[in-house]
Amino acid sequence: MTKERIQKVLAKIGKGSRRDMERAIEEGRVRLNGEPAKLGDRAGLGDQIELDGKPVKIEQIKARRVLVYNKPEGEVSTRRDPEGRPTVFDRLPALPGERWIVVGRLDLNTSGLLLFTNDGELANRLMHPSGMIDREYAVRILGEVRPEHVQAMHEGVELEDGPARFTDIQEFGGSGANSWYHVVIMEGRNREVRRLWESQGLKVSRLKRVRYGSVFLDADVRAGTWKELPKAEVDKLAGLVELPKAPWKSILAGKHDPNRRKMEHQRTRRSVASKGPKKANRTR
Q: Which are the catalytic amino acids?
């Protein structure tokens, strides 16, 4: 392992996103070889790092893991909530010695796909605007959507925090108070999808993220459950942000997959249904 910037090293081994680690360094919570660390310091194997007074073991790159989580409405996207509301971290599997990092956030009333990873560098690149990672949402709209509304949101609208636009808008059926659209956006600013529609005098009554980059929300991931991405999909996702392949090991080895029981039950029901009722044995 060659020496890299200390915030990048800490992110790679799962201590948080690179942005989180930069903040920790600025707050004086990181020490390198006994001295307060500074942004720009480099570290590698053989260096001693402390984070919040605890030693951090620098190792070769750990297995890169990614979870797909189907967030229900009513959960917050923070690790802890001072109001005691449920968080998106509550139902995730334990990751001894590491921590899950959420890739972007969804507001309280938005549901759908959230990605979690133990690789802080991957999380940082997927969230950073320079990565140009597109996000797709299913949106239910109250009000009449006219062609000029669609054109304006395609070309760009000036919001209070700068210009914004959808790169794609597709109608998905319905009418009146039940008109559905799929929209694609390249950023993850706060409430950006809702604010774009509101700029046209339209109200979003339901919002669900269905895709993040190359990852789609599969129908078998019910609200409040998670699914582990296989190595091929993890490598594809990392490739979108020009990260090399990394070791992979399933977190499910010897553990309970929350979706497995449901899938096995469905397969059993289909199997029984296909065979039909058994004929009774007749004896003379």
A: 107
